[in-house]
Amino acid sequence: MRPDPLVEPRALRALLVGVTVLFLTVFLLMPLVVVLYEALRSGVGAYVATFADSEARSAIRLTLIVAAIAVPANLVFGVAASWAIAKFEFRGKAVLMTLIDLPFSVSPVIAGFVYLILFGSQGFLGPFLASRGWQVVYAVPGIVLATIFVTFPFVARELIPVMQSHGNDDEEAALSLGASGLTTFLRVTLPNVRWGLLYGVLLCNARAMGEFGAASVVSGHIRGLTNTVPLQVEILYNEYNWVAAFSLATLLLILALVTLLAKNVVERRFAAPGGAHGGGRV
Amino acid sequence: MSDPMRNDGPPGPSPEGTNGGADHQQFEWGESLALSANDVWLSFDSEQALRGASLEVAGGELVALLGPSGSGKTTLLRVIAGLAFADRGSVTIGDLDASHIPVRDRRIGLVFQHYALFRHMTVADNIAFGLRVRPRGSRPAKREIEERVHALVDLMQLGGLERRFPAQLSGGQRQRVALARALAIQPRVLLLDEPFGALDAKVRRELRRTLRDIHDKTGYTTIFVTHDQEEALEIADRVVVMREGLIEQAGTADEVYDAPVSRFAFEFIGDSNVVAVEVRGGCVLFEGDCLDLPRTDRADGPALLGFRPHHVARREAQGGSMAGRVVASRRAGGWRRLDVEVGTSRQRLQVDLPDDASAPRRGTVWVLPERYLLFDA
Is B5 at the interface with chain A, CB within 8 A? Predict the structure, then answer.
């Protein structure tokens, strides 16, 4: 057979494919299998029993509450920030963009400590808040704040390039046709970025539910009260309650798989006629 | 909001009036309003985009704003549209000073180079947008909106594409949708920013004709920006040449082509040659020789001789003409186009000769303009 000048030799191809498959298996696939295996090693009964435990239920509830606050908050902030950055010129724009990226570059543990220093009983604002009966640190508000901080960039980062690639023509056209600013935003700007927005929300949600470091610092690990699912998994694991730990961990695993699946669907919709947005995505 | 220009109703008759006999009505066009921009200044950051541009457009006129990039033509269009407010100067539409009326209330039909269609809406929804976003009181009934969209689809020859999304259309079709969308609001004025700039040559020509037809049918006062002088000359009633934030010349195609006010206007519109000459005693001297041209009453001194490539005649010998060497000869449609280097200074000219056997391909030729203009050197 005539060799194709654009295709690498067979041996090299096999090597590259082999390395990739090995890497994926060891680092991605095997952990997934191990989690499922450990969760189910004592049978389905033990697996299901994990979720009957009140501490586990409270951890799940808390995780949902935190995500339910953090994600909408960052949705609003992300849309507002990307709108401002993509559509307007103003002083301090570069600073704003750097600030948005800050949570990506700061270790979540540090982020948690910052809130501890700010709102803790020895902190700057702690005594003032405590005197009014508001507990932030070692309580739900602290976990919510820390989670909002670490998930800050997801929506904005996703939207800024999409909005920038669109320019202002669509908005100007809508205004010239008599639409109000709000109508233009709701019926032109938002639909234009809807898939990018959904994508950002998915990632934001996955991170909000899975956040460990920052939440761990401000949580205080009060059982049944301030433990989110990842924190509860760690506690169970440290107590050698492996089946329960891995059973609970399967929830995070399912979250990850659902996020990936949804992400794929979203990406396919990006390419669909009604959802296409001209230039390549990000 | 008692703003007289508010964009919330059909022009002319009151909403009640139109509803009365709306069932069988044809698409109703708005009025043709005169328009003017008066001494408009505008700067961005450090760049002065407009330096006192003034423009008068009569009602129903089709005007081309022509100029190189950076000449301020798009900026002037944006000021007229209300997408930018001038630092100084005013914009008048009809009898109204529109200078401080925002774009949404000017009721101006805008068409962009890159169409700016709403990509998540179908063709029909795009066209209907301007009608659907009206406040409830002045919004046409659903059925009326459908009828108007239908009429516009027919007018723009978009039949069968109503359910498509912009991404599924060709460039020419997209621009037709954009035009239909702008017409749907019965605009006071139609403004187009490089409307055909992103299209290929054939579609461009087709759409040019469409624009001219639409203009003749609707009678809307129309301004379009272009850097393509052929386009401007072909369809505009009047051509406005811009340069560095100012109007250089405004006139009919004949006026700007045959009587340009400056070397800039002369070179910008149409093919042109400019040769350094000297005027002495009413005679145009090329490298010392008095050219066999009608005498000029221009004062003595250096000047520039301008003429069109097709206004050049061949002479048989040196006397009173410019001697040159043919360096290239190409076929250009019905013409033979020669590149000629004249004189010892070897200034390059373009000469268009009828494509017959006598057109030389090589060697020396003697040429003389049949019609010429003189500009300051």
Answer: no
CA distance A1 to A162: 46
Range of the domain at B344: 271-376
In this structure, are residues B334 and B310 in contact, taking their beta carbons and an 8 Å threshold? no
Confidence category of residue B9, pLDDT binned at 50, 70, 90: very low
C-beta atoms of A183 and B7 within 8 A: no
Structure tokens at B104: 């949404």
- Residue of chain A minimizing CA distance to B108: A176
Strands (E) located in B113-237: 189-193, 221-226
Q: Is A169 on the interface with B (CB under 8 A)?
A: yes
- The residue range of the domain holding A261 is 61-271
Asked if A180 reaches chain B (Cβ–Cβ under 8 Å), the answer is yes
Distance from the Cα of B130 to chain A's closest Cα (Å) equals 5
Chain B residues inside the 8 Å CB shell of A277: 119
Q: Is A269 on the interface with B (CB under 8 A)?
A: no
- Residue B363's CB is within 10 A of a number of other CB atoms, namely 7
What is the total count of domains within chain A?
1
Contact B31, B123 (CB under 8 A): no
Q: B255-302 pLDDT, tens per residue?
A: 999 999 999 999 998 889 999 999 998 899 998 888 988 888 888 999
Among A170, A178, A187, the residue with its CB nearest the CB of B116 is A170
ipTM of this complex = 0.82
Residue-wise pLDDT for B124-152, tens only, equals 999 999 999 999 888 999 999 999 999 99
Q: Find, among B256, B207, B211, the residue nearest to B229 by Cα.
A: B256
CB contact under 8 A, A177 and B129: yes
A3 falls within a domain = no
CB contact under 8 A, A178 and B133: yes
Both B145 and B211 in a single domain?
yes
- To the nearest whole Å, the CA of A18 is away from the closest chain B CA by 40
B167/B232 same-domain check: yes
- Residues B240, B114: one domain? yes
- Measured between beta carbons, the chain B residues lying within 8 angstroms of A180 are 104, 133
> Do residue A174 and residue B129 have CB atoms under 8 angstroms apart?
yes
Nearest CB neighbour to A180, from listed B104, B116, B178: B104
